[in-house]
Request: fold
Amino acid sequence: MTEHRPFKLAPAACAVVLCALAATPAFAVNKDIVQLQTEVQDLQTAVAHLQQSNDERMGVLTSLVQQTVDSVNKMSVSVENLQQQMKTQQESASGKLDQVSGQVQSLNDSLDEIRARLDNLSKALQAVQSQQQSINAALQNMATPANPNPANPDNPASPTTPGMPGSDSSAQPAVQQSPGQSPPVADLGKPSADIPFPTSQGPYANQPAAPAAAPTAPSTPSAPPLATLYSSALQDYMAARYTLAANEFNQVVRAYPSDSLAGNAYYYMGEIDRNAGRFSAAVKEYDHVIQQYPGNPKIPVARLHKGMALISLRQRDAAIDEFRALIQRFPNSPEAVTARAKLNGMGVRARVE
Reply:
């Protein structure tokens, strides 16, 4: 019995020993765990502080971004308002320029009509002067009476006027004149006592000679005078009788192609075509003015309206070239001002750098 006790007590002792041995590390492990937990807690607290700080900073940044966005929106609205105002002002200025251009064009049309009337008056004055010259020539070439000295029929050449050399005043009594009788006629160029000057005289010495009329010769014999035809066409154009005016302007350019008024006629034909929507035909008429009549005063407005017709034809580049050519050739004209406004509205510079 005694031999088996040690065998039975050994496991119990081992257990006690193991428990004793394991008690010491358990306390150390718990201490480390507590320390780790404390450090973890500190880290969590620091992370929480960082998170809070980041949230605060993000809030500040968000507020700044929102303020920036609001400022940008306000600036955008202000810029849009400015753009709208500038567009409105530009449209108003363009409308005023178009109005001024129209008024200037009306004045030019009125001047053309006045010039046509002055041409008519000049031709009428030349006709009157020609008639006056014819009358003077007829008076100068009138024949004198066959016997200017009825007192001496045997010798008509002998002077019988009293006071003249060789005359016998006692032999020939003075001729008594009745109240209705005309005075005696003297020889031409020989003054007498009764008639101090000749009855018929030529032109005065100081009278200027009438200018020779040099009307433009029509190409066809049946064509009416240029001034009359052009004045009639212009009056029909001003009265909005465009079909009749176009026919009359066409007669002008056919009958008088070399006259400067033919350039005006081409311009008005282009105006009629442009107002009727025939932009291609209008461009051709304007080209006649620009190319065939380099000194015509209608060239600036012809270039301007040609550019407008090209815009209507959607030929933007050609219109830009035409406006630039107008500004370069006539920089101080009202049409150049309108052309600059048109280019600014198209977003194009007036000059090529």
